[in-house]
Design goal:
The protein has about 350 residues and is α/β, with parallel strands linked by helices. It has 2 domains: about 1-60, no CATH class; about 80-335, 2-enoyl-CoA Hydratase, Chain A, domain 1 (Alpha-Beta Complex), CATH 3.90.226.10. Helices cover about 30% and strands about 25% of the residues. The protein has 8 helices and 16 strands. A hairpin with a 3-residue loop joins strand 2 (about 80-85) and strand 3 (about 90-95). Helix 5 (about 135-145) runs parallel beside helix 6 (about 190-195). The radius of gyration is 24 Å and the shape is elongated.
């Protein structure tokens, strides 16, 4: 850990505009001096670029070097891609990530559907990211635990600079079992959400380990044309294990290969709701929530009353992670009814 602290401090000095003496780079400084002394030609601009790339890879593999005109140009995607009501009273939520407070629509529908004896909820975080920690904290308070310490934010010296607690609530009453689906592309605020939830009761992580990137990044201007997006602080879950470099480990790891569970019924339908700017009671949600459900052309769709009926053979049975999560929920429901 001490080595990483020194690396981060050295990079911090560079970003702040300080000059780091060449001797600090040891063999690299000796090598460049040798090139100059013996008049060995090389492209200095390419060499500088290569050294910067290597340094960034060593200090922060997920750092990004980009043009200053790109810093504010990226569009902010919606947080929620789809909310579906599956057969056997299972609710499925596909998150794009925590980019805005659009996840409030998830809580709104939970409060409606749970009154209808929902057997379980699946939140799909595979490929999800985002940088809105406030939205992640709020969803934890809504569905897992209210008013609880979630995680610390630490600097390069491992000092706590900020502590986050769940910020909303009250928790959804009679919350059924919850499954979180993860993979190696679960990152950012979505990875933090998974790490915080992993130690809570009443839920299970299914899939594969997350990316393992606990860094919180900031933009720094390096020149008139270049900017750097790099981690300056790191998240450490409260009472849980660090996931930086290792990822959040699922409770049940599922190999990415298809299998056919015993419950499979290709004739069953899924009700899919488009995400609108109105919640279930007609009250306005925060802006930026709307994102109609995409309907891939490969799926068989039959228009119903306000929803689409989808063939489950593609959407559930051929997805081993979703299928395993559904198997578990159906098994828990069967035990509960005995």
């Amino acid at each position: 850990m001490a080595g990483r602290k020194l690396e981060r401090l050295a990079l911090g000095f560079l970003l702040a505009g300080f000059i780091v003496h060449a001797q600090a780079f040891g063999d690299l400084a000796a090598f460049t001096n040798l090139l100059d002394e013996h008049r060995i030609p090389y492209d200095r601009s390419q060499a500088n670029a290569a050294m910067l790339d290597s340094l960034l890879e060593f200090v922060d593999p997920y750092a990004v070097l980009l043009g200053t005109n790109c810093v504010d140009a990226a569009a902010r995607p919606s947080s929620v891609l789809a909310i579906e009501e599956w057969p056997d009273a299972i609710m499925y939520v596909k998150l794009n990530g925590f980019y805005d407070m659009g996840t409030t629509s998830v809580t709104a529908r939970l409060r409606k559907w749970i009154t209808n004896d929902v057997a379980g909820v699946i939140i799909d975080l595979r490929g999800a990211g985002g940088d809105n920690l406030a939205a992640a904290d709020a969803l934890v308070g809504d569905i897992v635990e209210t008013d609880a310490t979630l995680y610390d934010i630490r600097n390069g010296l491992d000092d706590v600079v900020e502590t986050h607690r769940s910020t909303q609530g009250p928790k959804v009453r009679d919350m059924p079992p919850l499954m979180l689906l993860t993979d190696k592309e679960t990152h950012g605020a979505s990875e933090t959400f998974a790490a915080v939830c992993a130690t809570r009761d009443g839920l299970m992580l299914v899939g594969s380990p997350t990316r393992g990137d606990a860094g919180l990044r900031e933009y720094f201007t390096l020149s008139e044309s270049k900017a750097l997006y790099i981690a300056t602080r790191w998240i450490v879950p409260s009472g849980g294990e660090r996931y930086d470099g290792t990822g959040v480990q699922p409770h049940i790891e599922v190999e990415p290969e298809p299998y056919t569970p015993a419950f499979a019924d290709a004739s069953a339908g899924i009700k899919t709701e488009a995400i609108s700017e109105r919640d279930v009671d007609g009250d306005s949600l925060q802006s930026g929530v709307h994102n109609p459900v995409q309907k891939p052309s490969s799926e068989s769709l039959e228009e119903g009353k306000g929803h689409a009926v989808l063939d489950t053979s593609d959407r559930q049975i051929m997805d081993p992670v979703r299928a395993r999560a559904r198997d578990i929920l159906l098994g828990l429901e069967a035990l509960r009814k005995k």
